[in-house]
Amino acid sequence: MNARVFVTFVFLVAVCKGLCAGTEPTTLITNGFAHNDYEHKRPLLDALDLGFCAVEADIYLIDGQLLVGHDIADVKPDRTLTSLYLEPLAKRVRKYGKVYPNGPEVLLLIDVKSEADATYQQLKKVLTNYSDMLTTFTANGIRTNAVTIVISGNRPIELASRESSRLAAIDGRVSDVDTNRSLPLIPLVSDIWTKFSRWNGKGQMPEAERSRIAEFVRRAHEQKRKVRLWAAPDTAESWKLQQTLGIDLINTDKLAEFAKYAATPQK
After folding, report:
1. Exposed site from 9, 69, 189, 225, fewest CB < 10 Å?
2. Cβ atoms within 10 Å, residue 145
3. Could you give the 3-state DSSP secondary structure of residue 200?
4. SS3 (DSSP) at 76
5. What is the rounded CA–CA span in Å between residue 225 and residue 46?
6. pLDDT in tens, 214-236
7. How do the residues of the chain divide into helix, strand and coil, expressed in percent and rounded to 5?
8. 53: which DSSP letter?
9. What percent of the chain has pLDDT over 90?
10. In 3D, which of 201, 187, 198, 195 has the Cα closest to residue 249?
11. What pLDDT is stored for residue 74 in this prediction?
């Protein structure tokens, strides 16, 4: 058995033991983002078992309920934002004081698929039930708590910007860095990978594209915002490059593979 195969074997055994025993992960993944998390076999729980500190849930407002699913045809009455995400997170916070024992805040990115303002109004009502564990955003700053909510997709930017205190922030875009909008309103900036690069994860990325991403990250970090790029190649080579370029949250649909990558020292 060569060294690489042995490391993989040991990692998978450790993951299996953790899942079977229900123990907490020994390593937390603070730079990985569980993209479309709700499509995994066990929404949220698969990501938490592996130590992810950022997950995404798409929602639709249907008959007063916030239902989780990528397409409207996928939603089911029993798959609500509350049952799949908020209540399981609250249960852990009640047990540990945080989502992970002695861990950092956990990001729940809520991608709104239905009409922005109406969905946000219902989301606010739901989040009020969990205010004791949620980060608070005001004009004066950010009070970090166990779980931070950021709204993406159809974003109620103007409605949220008029509120003096919120339990959710807004996911920004490149244009929001250009205009330098309020940090408590937009603490995270996400945009599509192809806006910066056509690199498909093979060979070397053109230097001009590397520089373009690096400059965007530099400007966002100068404004104290975190950065995420979606639709990037979901490979170890891409993860390593994004990490090198300073991208804070690396999109992945391959949770176990990313967890193994994160646990392996990078050369």
Report:
1. 9
2. 19
3. coil
4. coil
5. 27
6. 999 999 999 999 999 999 999 99
7. 40, 20, 35
8. S
9. 86
10. 187
11. 86
| Residue ranges with strand state E in the chain | 32-34, 54-62, 65-68, 106-112, 136-138, 141-143, 147-153, 165-166, 169-172, 188-192, 226-230, 249-252
Q: Which two tokens stand for residue 190?
A: 């996400």
Closest-CA residue to 38 (of 93, 98, 78):
78
Domains contained in the chain, CATH given:
3-263 (3.20.20.190)
110 strand-pairing partners: 57, 151
- Asked if 57 and 108 touch (Cβ cutoff 8 Å), the reply is yes
Cβ pair 159, 115 in contact under 8 A: no
Block residue for tokens 């990115």 = 109
Q: How far apart are CA 92 and CA 212, in angstroms?
A: 40
Q: How far apart are CA 195 and CA 174, in angstroms?
A: 9
Amino acid type, 137:
F
User: Can you tell me the distance from the alpha carbon of 88 to that of 91, in angstroms, rounded to the nearest whole number?
Assistant: 5
How many Å apart are CA 61 and CA 120, to the nearest integer?
Answer: 9
User: Would you state the pLDDT for residue 197?
Assistant: 97
